[in-house]
Amino acid sequence: MVDEEEIIRVAKLMKIDLEDHSEHVGRVKKMLEYFDILDQIDLSSEEITSQEKSLAELRKDEFIPHDKKLIESLKNFREHYVRAPKMN
To answer: How many Cβ atoms are within 10 Å of 78's Cβ, its own excluded?
Structure first.
């Protein structure tokens, strides 16, 4: 399965600085176990349905100009960047 060395290697490739790698090993293992469960599901008997729409049903793609700069009205806008909330 996944070991701590593999987590460290992937974190380095993604340029993520992880202080405690052992904390993430369990999370990744749980995630991979869930994917294994999903891979075992037999979907051959399921009918795939799709909804087709004609071009006439789609909205017209048009440019609508705005009076003010929308990006500057964001509350976390600073200079040229928009700050995203901290992710845990």
So the answer is: 8
